[in-house]
Design a protein that fits this description.
There is one protein chain. With 87 residues, the protein is mainly α. It contains four helices and no strands. The chain has helices at 2-11, 21-41, 46-69, 71-81. Helix 1 packs antiparallel against helix 2 (21-41), helix 2 packs antiparallel against helix 3 (46-69) and helix 3 (46-69) packs antiparallel against helix 4 (71-81). 14% of the residues are buried.
Length: 87
């Protein structure tokens, strides 16, 4: 819970922002990274793998949206999170 608050504080756009695209992408990235570690230890956990793929797809949609609306914010976000560019 504390980690989530830190992520929101780092990526928020305004004082009470918890749902902007940047915040949602950052939160999804944290969950994806956590689930990746889980799947390394539990390679047969296909239910979690499906959830991971859904989260990756949702994050891709958010990133495409941000890329269309604000290319500079998109570039800053992927650089800060260390993720690849979406096609």
């Amino acid at each position: 819970m504390e980690e989530k608050k830190d992520i929101i504080a780092k990526f928020k756009q305004s004082e009470h922002d918890t749902g902007s695209v940047q915040v949602q992408v950052a939160l999804l990235t944290a969950r994806i990274n956590h689930l990746n570690e889980h799947l390394k230890a539990n390679p047969k956990d296909n239910h979690s793998r499906r959830g991971l793929l859904q989260m990756v797809g949702k994050r891709k949609g958010f990133l495409l949206y941000l890329k269309e609306r604000d290319i500079e914010a998109y570039r800053n976000l992927i650089k800060e999170l260390g993720i690849r560019e979406v096609k």
